[in-house]
Specification:
The chain is of the alpha+beta class. The protein is built from twelve helices and 18 strands. The longest helix has 52 residues, at 266-317. The chain is rod-shaped, with a radius of gyration of 41 Å.
Amino acid sequence: MHELFEKMSFLLHGGILDMLADQMSKTSPQAVILEPQGKDLSVLEAIGITPPNLIISGERYSLEQTFYGTPSLSMTPLNLSLMNNKWGWGIPLKGKEWTFYFLFSHRPSQQFLNNLPAIEGLIKLWQDFNGREAMEQRLSRLAYMILATKNTLSSIFEPMPLDYFAAFLSDVIRESLFPADLAIIHDDGEKLTSLEGDIFNLPKRDANLFTRLFTPSPIPIDSDHAEIFGEERYSRLAHKWSVLLPIPSMKQKLYCLLKWNHSLEKEDLNFLELLGNVASKALSISCLHEERDAALKELSEQAYALQALHQATLQLMEQPDIHHLCKAILDMFCEISRSRQGLLMLWDMEEQSYTLRGIYCHGKIKAPTRSIKLPFFSMDKGSMPSSFSLEMARSYFHYLKVPELLNFPEIIGAQWVIPLIHKKTKLLGFVALWEKEEGDESVHISLFETLGQTASAAICCFYNKSFPF
């Protein structure tokens, strides 16, 4: 029994070829066993010759035509030149999912022909065993892919930054399909950026191409799909990559470039498509989370600003004199905008000049003495902007022929200038603000207009319309 087991194991693991080679050597001085593989022929055994290559490129269809119509196990005369040899006889052995060709230089013996049914039966057992083993391997890989999918589903829908998402997706693909190389590219609608893998000389974004790649289905980078990529882009991709997997979402796309050193099975492509669909949905959900968080943050900031504005307005109306009013205005602007520094320039009725009324710096206010001797400024027509950058403000005031208003050392380094305007044309003064405090988010610029109007209204109420309007 032990000897029988060893013989069976030997035959089922390819020993049948050695046995056939021994039998064929007794009936013909030269003989070969060929197996079709794709467009080529693979040399499994060679008797009496030394093949120049074990793969005969592009000869499959020619040999099939030679044996066209010949039943399995039927010997047929040939006049065939192959591998620098002449072959006079041939026998095809055909199964449901396999084919072998026996070529002989001389006519095989009758004893060999009588053994052909037994040889076919042994080959069938061998191929069935190989098929069953291959199926077991495929089922094992499929089970592993299902397990990888289960583990992926438990984590991929968690909100995460885009670079973390790309790294997670890269890990899943590497651990599930074992590509030789992988790269992930981000398309933000304007340009391409590499997130994973080493990609040099990223191509320019082709809007027409990336518009077509709107489904998360893997696209083999081969001659059959060259038209999708275009000739130039296909030639750049094909020399290194095997498959492109688009992962579209609501607002952005990812593209996975994958390389294998072997041909992919159908299960691999199916798993890639499943993973692409899951990743696409997860990326869309992540975008929705980001939009929701941004909306909540904006609402929170607006609520904070409205509450602070309400409190500041009440404080402005309660100030007993102009000095306390100026201090309250500076406090209001700097605290709501979270600026680390600010200053207030205001028209002084008594001095008949624009006077620097206070400088706010890290929560403290000091009152310098500086005035700019200019008449009260009022535009003849048009309206003044509600806020602008310091450079824009200087250009604007220079255009209005009052550049002196921003020509003093204390304002150097300011980021924003917010005019305090009455009736859209009359300049009561202005507030200048520096950059935000470290770690704070900057206030929305539209709030500056509301702050400016509030401060202007408070100043006008305080003077009880005594300005020269």
